[in-house]
Amino acid sequence: MTHIDAGSELDPVHPVKPPASEGSVAVRASGLTSAEVAERIARGEVNDVPVRSSRSTAEIVRGNVFTRFNAIIGVLWVIMLFVAPIQDSLFGFVIIANTGIGIIQELRAKKTLDGLAVIGEAKPTVRRDGTAAAISTSEIVLGDVIELGPGDKVVVDGEVAEADSLEVDESLLTGEADPVLKKPGDVMMSGSFVVAGGGAFTATKVGREAYAAQLAEEASRFTLVHSELRSGISTILKYVTWMMIPTAIGLIISQMVVKDNDFKNSVARTVGGIVPMIPEGLVLLTSVAFAIGVIRLGRKQCLVQELPAIEGLARVDVVCLDKTGTLTEGGMDVTGLRPLNGADEGHVRQVLGALGESDPRPNASLTAIKDAYPDDAGWRVLEALPFSSARKYSGASFSDGTGENSTWLLGAPDVLLPAGDPALAEIDDLNAQGLRVLLLARATGSDLTDPRIGAGAQATALVVLEQRLRPDAGETLAYFADQNVAAKVISGDNAVSVGAVAGKLGLSGAENTVDARNLPTDRAEMAKVLDENAVFGRVTPQQKRDMVAALQSQGHTVAMTGDGVNDVLALKDADIGVSMGSGSEATRAVAQIVLLNNSFATLPSVVAEGRRVIGNITRVATLFLTKTVYSVLLAVLVVCSQVDYPFLPRHLTLLSTLTIGVPAFFLALAPNKERAKPDFVKRVMRYAIPSGVIAATATFTTYLIARHHYTGPDALAAETSAATLALFLVSMWVLAIIARPYTWWRIGLVAAMGLGFLIVLVVPWLQTFFALKLIGTTMPWTAVGIAAAAAVLLELAWRWVGKKWDA
């Protein structure tokens, strides 16, 4: 090869184009010098696109503080500070505390995300001063020469400087799945990735000038969108606002115009009716639950690149697993060499050694062969064809130094051999033992780019490889089976071999394997085969994508795991893409979840975290929405009846804290293994509406009876106390239902809340502070009786809803 020194007249941005060929090229760019790099940094020609894994601190504070409901509550709080005692303004302090908790938790999550993003960041290999070194993407400057190999992501726009059978997939940018063969001088676009071969390119656009880089930056930013949970809560809040505005207006008119009461007392009771309509803690609790989920997973070296992925994985009912790197460890060992057709074993070893040296970036199989058979013959490589998932083989042409040239292929026996070849029977026996078998064959032609090169190739030897099973893979598969999540093993390897590996790990249905070359192309028929079987071999990258789409067409929520470049398209199309940290840059870029410790066993933790978050938020959302429903209905009943609103803000602050705020926080963080179900809004409202109606009816009934029972100047305080007792007891029963199934700490939580209210009722200074004092025995026991009847109605209503909608 002709070598050009860094100090020559070569333009680093537009290098001299050598004579192009389909194989390798004769010019090797040595890259920029340190002085040239410093000069470009000074000019600002650096790849300074800020790829962030999370929102900035300012965005987090803004997102938690400046909300619609915080604004409403803030105005009401200021009013109350002027017209009522401080105890009627407690709701404002609660909101400040809650918002502070939300900010702190999200900042903790940001710190975790940012730290993990640095660990998992791709570091491209760049040539400078004649040597190659891995640097951060943000340190790349204009004119840098960047090396590429299989699985590497193109991080900036550029121009090919060197190409060695370089095939690039641009599907993430163009939508075209077929790889593009690149030659020197061709354009490279950021966001594409290498599927085969190698080479180098020169950066011609860096930073925000590269349009594809801008798209990548936007795609990689922290996001809370595209989440059924969050969009459902937004829908609920929209309806709440519509209900709240006319109800609040009617309440204001009723209390301040129609009722001729003391002004300050009327304002206090009006605000007391408006504040509980706002489910202000629901959004906060969702953010906190997601943030804590990120922190918990971060401790297990799991990078959640998009927060809704936690929720999405909770909904998964099918997980597609790539065998290599997921069920098996990356390394392999050569366990046997079987010459065929009278081939000399010594010569076979020489060929395998030369093939190992012919690929500068060997895959796991070729690495094992390279380790087992060192190259001591010194054959010269004339042309090399890297392994491709689509071809299922690699190859090289050699000159052995005696003037004899030969071309060899190494790959899948059932692809290179014709059907019915006698060697296939022996191969099937080996595959049935879970061994991987590669065929070494001598090609009759010499053009490796000819797709028919394998036709007529002479079988020379079988190379038997044993894959290292992940010790934790069996337990992980058992977990998915226990959780009713169907596992589908999809691999490019021989189907029988894949089935044997899956069988060793205890996968149900592993004995029934399917060769993907026989899969129907019709999506519905393919989906039927996928539903009926669990192991698929000889799957091409495009088929992986088609299989994901077929499963999704049947209503399945699909997660896809993988670490190789052949998994990228399927990872991108799956509902949840999971990549190994040691996987290619391309897979890490498109996956929503990256397992930085490369442990498949981490996946159950991610599923459990998602189920915990979404299942618990659904539970506590019912608590919050029940309060909203009974608050709106009470306000409507008060307006229609033209009576004083029964509660001051301090009463509902106490009730909200004991029956919603504190319990919801603990319930939202509790373990929950139930698989998430769709229709979040409907499921929540089916329970919240009847619960709210029953609570409001019981409370207002108690209040009306108390108005007839008590007389005198202090009657309103006694009426309020009776109504508060009834509402607390009904709300506690709603909490008791939601806390099921009971554990010791759930029972303790409900009991502690009840004890808290009892303390308020019996401690004199707390009675005064909260304006709560039960007068006599008749009315308090009446309130208890009404609450008991309401509890029976609640039980019947919840059972009816559960039976009717399987909610």
From TrEMBL:
InterPro entries: ATPase_P-typ_cyto_dom_N, ATPase_P-typ_P_site, ATPase_P-typ_TM_dom_sf, ATPase_P-typ_transduc_dom_A_sf, ATPase_P-type_domA, HAD-like_sf, HAD_sf, P_typ_ATPase. PANTHER family: CALCIUM-TRANSPORTING ATPASE. It is found in: Cell membrane. The chain crosses the membrane at residues 65-84, 90-107, 239-258, 278-297, 620-639, 651-672, 684-706, 718-738, 745-766, 778-798. Signal peptide: none annotated. The keyword Transmembrane applies. Its main location: membrane. Residues 124-218 form the P-type ATPase A domain. It is a multi-pass membrane protein. This is Cation-translocating P-type ATPase. Residues 1-22 are annotated as: Disordered. It comes from Streptomyces cremeus. Keywords: Membrane, Translocase, Transmembrane, Transmembrane helix.
